[in-house]
Amino acid sequence: MELSEQQEQAELLLAGFIRGLGLFMLGAMIIMCHLYGEQFQLNWPEQERVVLRTVLYVVAILTFLALKFIRHILLQLNQRPSDKSAKSRYLMTIIVTMLIAEGIGLFGLVMYFLGDATNTLYIFSILSALAMYLHRPNIEEYRLILQSQS
Q1: Of 4, 15, 81, 99, whose CB neighbour count within 10 A is largest?
Q2: What is the pLDDT of residue 38?
Q3: pLDDT at 82
Q4: What ranges in 12-45 are assigned the alpha helix state H?
Q5: How far apart are CA 9 and CA 11, in angstroms?
Q6: How high does pLDDT run on average in the chain?
Q7: How far apart, in whole angstroms, are the C-alpha atoms of residue 28 and residue 149?
Q8: d(CA 71, CA 78)
Q9: Cα 107 from Cα 91, distance rounded (Å)
């Protein structure tokens, strides 16, 4: 089944919407922290926050590496014969990828509620947005899945 470029773009519209929703959630998280965050901060001791922040930075970096590997595995699985459409299989890959990327941003939210400054929230949010950008829906990946169905 050969699709025109416009049809392929239209089929990726929902995947792009999911990515946009993830970015919107990051922005909403930052705004909510600015408006209401101080009243929910727990103000943990600085030394405990430093240790946890360091661990979460390491986990975020490892998540970046793992995300590339996970996406590669999911794309390989998408190219195998299946009852599901190429669109639904690729959409599941995008959903999983964006959820993992969103998790990096949640590290900043956790640290903010534990008493860290907003710069930690920004750093983790930017890392999350970067992961969403690097693993955005890609027409070439979708074409490979379509070709494997034929």
Answers
A1: 15
A2: 86
A3: 86
A4: 13-36
A5: 5
A6: 93
A7: 39
A8: 10
A9: 25
> Per residue in 118-138, is it b (16+ CB within 10 Å) or e — as a string?
eebbebbbebbbebbeebebe
Over range 60-79, report the average pLDDT: 95
Burial of residue 108 (CB within 10 Å: 0-12, 13-18, 19+) is buried
* Token pair 């408006």: residue: 35
Residue 130 three-state SS: helix
Domains in the chain: boundaries? 5-149
Q: What is the pLDDT of residues 70-93, one digit of tens each?
A: 999 999 999 998 899 989 999 999
Q: What is the pLDDT of residue 13?
A: 93
The radius of gyration of the chain's CA atoms, rounded to the nearest angstrom, is 18
| CA–CA distances in Å: residue 5 to residues 25, 137, 139, 142, 146 | 30, 14, 9, 11, 12
Task: Give CA separation, 132 vs 25, 27, 88, 114, in Å.
Answer: 12, 13, 19, 25
- The answer to whether 60 touches 104, Cβ cutoff 8 Å, is yes
CA distances from 118 to 35, 45, 88, 115, 124 (A): 12, 16, 38, 9, 10
Q: Is the pLDDT score of 9 beyond 90? A: no
pLDDT of 1 > 70? The answer is no
